[in-house]
Amino acid sequence: MNGTSSAGDEATDANGTPADANGTPAGGRATGVGVPAGIDPSRPSAARIYDYFLGGKDNFEADRAVAEHLLKLDPRTVEAVRENRRFLVRAVRHLVEDAGIRQFLDIGTGLPTQDNVHQVAARYAPDARVVYVDNDPLVLAHARALLSGGGATIVQGDLRRPDEILANPDVREALDFSRPVAVLLVAVLHFVADDEDPRGAVATLRDAVPSGSRIVLTHGTADGPYARGEESTEAYRKADRSLTLRSLDEISPFFDGLDPVPPGLTWVQRWWPERPYEDGDLRGMYAGIGVKR
Ligand SMILES: C[S@@+](CC[C@H](N)C(=O)[O-])C[C@H]1O[C@@H](n2cnc3c(N)ncnc32)[C@H](O)[C@@H]1O
C-alpha cells in the first residue's frame, strides 16, 4: 500500500473521473492512516481492488494481482468501473436537483475517491446529509479520516444485516426517516450471494424509508458480448467477498415495489436522465433508480 500520495490532487474530467484513462494509478492520498488492525494485506479486498481500478493507491500487492488478472480477462474493466462512478455522480445530481432529495444512505461506500457522494450533493444542496456505511475496516478508517464532517457521517455496517444499519443511533441521528431518503447500493449487491438474501436486504431498506424515497443501484453482470463472468467470479475466490454477477432478469426483482425512473434498469453507460440512449461500450454493469410508492 502506498498511503502517502494524493488522489485529491488528480485532474478530473467533467464527470469527476480521474483524467488518466489508461488505468494507470493516478495518485493516492495523504491521510496519515496506516494499516488498521484487522487488515490482512495478503487477502484481496473488493474495496481495494476497486480502488486500484480507479487509480487509487490504497491497495496491496494481493489486490493488484487480482485486479491485473481481471484486466487480462477484460481490459475494458477499468472503463466499466469508471462508468459506474460517472453514473453515481449523475445519479446524485439527479436526486438532488430533479427529485429534491437531501438525505443519502450510501451502503458499500468504497474507499474515498474523487467526487464522493456528499461532495457531489453539496454542490447542488449544501444542506444535504450523507451516511456512509461499509464493512471493510480500511474503508472505515479512510472514510473517517477523509469524509466525516460537512454533512457526512461514517458508520460501520453490513448490507446483509440491514436492520442493524437502520437501528444504528448515528444513522437515526443523521437521517430523518419521515422524509425521503436515497438509499445507494452502488456496485455492492454483487458482493452479496444468493443465499445471503440480497432481495430481502433491499426490501428491508425499501420498507424503512417513506414514500418518495429512492433506491439506487448498480450491479455487475456477465450479460453482454465480451463478459467472462465465470473467470471473473473465480478471480474473487481468495478475496474477502464472493462475486455474484447477475443477469438483467435476476437484477430486476430488486426493484419490486418501486417505480423505475426513466430510462429504467439499463446499462450503466445508458443511464442518463436527460439522454437515455447514450452509445458506448455496453458491458459490465446495470444501473437503475426506483421510487418508493
Ligand atoms: C466496488 S466498491 C463500490 C464503492 C462505491 N459504492 C462505488 O460504486 O464507487 C464495493 C464496496 O462495498 C463494500 N461492501 C461489500 N460487501 C458489503 C456488505 N455486505 N456490507 C457493506 N459493505 C459492503 C466493500 O467493502 C466496498 O467498499
Supply the CATH architecture of the largest domain. 3-Layer(aba) Sandwich
In whole angstroms, how far apart are the ends? Answer: 45 Å
Sketch the major β-sheet: 8 strands, mixed
Bound molecules: S-adenosylmethionine
DSSP helix fraction: 25-40%
Radius of gyration: 17 Å
The CATH superfamily name of the largest domain is: Vaccinia Virus protein VP39
Give the tally of structural domains.
2
Instruction: Write down how many β-strands occur, each being a DSSP E stretch of 2 or more residues.
Output: 8
Q: Please give the CATH class of the largest domain.
A: Alpha Beta
**Global structural class:** alpha/beta
Please identify the oligomeric state: single chain
Concise account of the structure shown:
By secondary structure, the protein is of the alpha/beta class. It is 32% helix and 14% strand.
Provide the fold topology.
Elements: H1 46-53, H2 61-73, H3 77-97, E1 103-107, H4 117-124, E2 129-134, H5 137-146, E3 152-156, H6 162-167, H7 169-174, E4 182-186, H8 198-208, E5 214-220, H9 229-235, H10 248-251, E6 258-260, E7 266-267, E8 285-292
Parallel strand pairs: 1-2, 1-4, 2-3, 4-5
Antiparallel strand pairs: 5-8, 6-8, 7-8
Helix pairs in contact: 1-2, 3-4
The chain binds S-adenosylmethionine.
S-adenosylmethionine binds at residues 46-47, 50, 84-85, 88, 107-110, 134-136, 139, 158-160, 186-188, 191-192, 241.
